[in-house]
């Protein structure tokens, strides 16, 4: 049965005493809830903890992984040589650099088109990521070659480097 219809029938059968009783019951419940809620509940305040210490530990671990600017070229060369060693054909390689002043680190990018066998490509990526902890895949697009033999990929790698700029280094 419809809820509105049920209420209407109750009101017609019992009249205003039922409406008064229900409104009093609801009012009493609201007053009780207001008195049960503790007074003076202001905004939530986070108690001091060792979170800043944990944040500092994570920041130090991140900084320890970063590549120094002197090692960047050698690491990029090692990744390119690894691609050749895995039997992949390289296209034109584009280099880029972006400095993150807020985080005090840099991001050197290496964009290269690759062609070859899919298993070789997958092995190359796994080996490169395992050998270089500060290496990240920024963009990857893989498609099968039209002749059905192997794959073509557009790979953009990011090397996270330590930045010499900024205070507190």
Description of the molecule:
- The protein is an alpha+beta fold.
- It has 2 domains: 3-32; 67-162, Alpha-Beta Plaits (2-Layer Sandwich).
- It is 45% helix and 25% strand.
- It contains 5 helices and 5 strands.
- It has helices spanning 3-14, 16-36, 51-65, 72-85, 118-131, and strands at 89-90, 94-100, 105-116, 135-144, 151-162.
- Strands 1, 2, 3, 4 and 5 form a 5-stranded antiparallel sheet that branches.
- A hairpin with a 4-residue loop joins strand 2 (94-100) and strand 3.
- It is elongated.
- 14% of the residues are buried.
- Mean pLDDT is 85; it is low at 165-169.
Short account of what is shown:
This protein folds into two domains: 30 residues; 96 residues, 2-Layer Sandwich (Alpha-Beta Plaits).
